[in-house]
Write a structure and sequence with these properties.
The complex is a heterodimer of chains A (259) and B (157).
Chain A: H1 2-31, H2 33-38, H3 40-50, H4 55-78, H5 86-124, H6 127-133, H7 138-176, H8 181-191, H9 194-221, H10 227-257
Chain B: H1 2-29, E1 41-47, E2 58-61, E3 64-75, E4 80-87, E5 99-104, E6 111-116, E7 129-130, E8 132-134, H2 139-156
Parallel strand pairs in B: 1-7, 2-6, 5-8
Antiparallel strand pairs in B: 1-4, 2-3, 3-4, 5-6
Classes of the chains: A mainly alpha (259), B alpha/beta (157).
């Protein structure tokens, strides 16, 4: 009985400890941001591997998500004789929800896991200790550029996802299902609000970008420095990012759109 | 060196594409293109019942959108709804005896304000009031009226 209580307590303390280490790491990463201004090349190299290499999967997924939304939305709307609202359905659901959320999930799978594996392996092969030995702060040199690359890439990727999705919805809706071209765009423009929908979508994607990159970096930096430890850390990155994105999405949606 | 140049170009193209996507969302998808916040003049209209009219609902004339509903307030003296209509500045020749009605777009659609022009020589301007109004049709009232009439017919027989 006492032993079980103690085990529960150890688990709780362990969670709190990890949470604390995570926040200390975030603080150290942010404190390293001034040094990034002196070395913008580090940021550009990371933007390439985090952002540019994710563009393909994001645009292709966006296209298909938009096309499916259009097909499904058309089926439901045609039962009410409101096919002309297809543009609103596609654009609003992409800009408000699917764009930021699906992009963040793909981003965690595509870029987050790579970040964790890279940093975990750096730790396992003692490259991070090597940097420290040479009086180079590994947080400033390795983690800060990756953090800001994720922070800057996510909103851009989400915007790409939503735009390509709207175009995909347009192709299927107007090209395949015969919704009126003018009604598709005019209804969309009348109902989608710049502040309410698009700005809030951008805020969501920024928050998800910070959270996903932070989780990925922390899992890598905190990984047990063995091959099994790195593999477990990579799995945890994807699982924790997905859970964090979906639960934060509920909180943010309630704050933004619930009156 | 050539490798790093390629990376720089790719990152530049990525950032440009992302920014273009944001602009596309703002200009083409959202209402920014039809949003001109302070351009126009405000007119007041009093209704007994506005149904489910919402702020930002369209104000139309002959089916063409000439403005938007800017604000909806409740007058606690007269128990009426006071609706502020923002008419676009270009439409400055609307007679001041214009008739304002609340319509529903389609059977279940949103409600909007329709204006029927009157014949006066004086035009609506900033702050003027539309005195001829017709309330929204509330479906429950109509059904209630219909049942009441039916019941009376039945009694008469």
């Amino acid at each position: 009985m006492i032993e079980q209580l103690a085990r529960l307590g150890r688990t709780g303390l362990g969670i709190l400890e990890r949470l604390g280490r995570g926040h200390l790491l975030l603080w150290a990463i942010l404190a390293g941001s001034p040094s990034l201004l002196r070395r913008p090349n580090l940021l550009i190299a990371q933007m390439f591997s985090v952002g540019v290499l994710s563009v393909l999967i994001i645009t292709v997924s966006g296209l298909f998500v938009g096309m499916v939304l259009s097909l499904q939305g058309h089926y439901t709307l045609s039962q009410f004789g409101a096919e002309e609202s297809l543009g609103v359905v596609v654009a609003a659901s992409l800009v408000r929800e699917l764009g930021p959320v699906v992009t963040a999930l793909l981003f965690a799978g595509r870029a987050g896991s790579a970040l964790t594996a890279e940093i975990g392996l750096m730790k396992a092969t003692e490259q991070l200790s090597g940097l420290e030995m040479m009086a180079v702060d590994p947080v400033k040199r390795i983690l800060t550029p990756r953090f800001f690359a994720g922070f800057l890439s996510m909103p851009l990727l989400a915007a790409l996802f939503s735009s390509v999705g709207v175009l995909g919805g347009y192709l299927v809706g107007v090209g395949l299902l015969g919704v009126d071209d003018g009604a598709f765009w005019s209804q969309m423009q009348a109902k989608v609000d710049l502040h309410e929908d698009i700005y809030n979508g951008v805020i969501k994607s920024v928050v998800f970008g910070v959270v996903c990159t932070w989780i990925a970096l922390f899992q890598g930096y905190d990984a047990v420095p063995t091959s099994a430890g790195v593999s477990r850390a990579t799995t945890r990155t994807v699982v924790h990012s997905a859970l964090a994105v979906l639960s934060l999405d509920f909180v943010l949606t309630a704050l933004m759109f619930g009156d | 060196m050539a490798r790093s140049k390629v990376i720089e170009v790719a990152v530049g193209a990525f950032m440009a594409a992302g920014t273009v996507a944001l602009f596309f969302l703002a200009m083409q998808v959202s209402n920014l293109s039809s949003l001109n916040a302070d351009d126009g003049y405000d007119v007041l209209a009093r209704f007994d019942n506005i149904g489910s009219l919402k702020v930002r609902a369209p104000v139309t004339m002959a089916g063409v959108r000439v403005g938007r509903v800017k604000a909806i307030m409740f007058d606690k003296e007269t128990y009426e709804a006071v609706v502020t209509l923002q008419i676009e500045a270009g439409y400055d020749t609307i007679p001041d005896d214009t008739f304002a009605k609340i319509f529903t777009a389609g059977l279940l659609g949103e409600q909007y304000v329709g204006l029927d022009p009157g014949g006066n020589d004086r035009f609506l301007e900033q702050g003027s009031q539309i005195s001829l109004t017709q309330s929204a049709l509330v479906l429950e009232d109509i059904i209630g009226q219909f049942l009441f009439n039916k019941a009376e017919e039945f009694d008469a027989e």
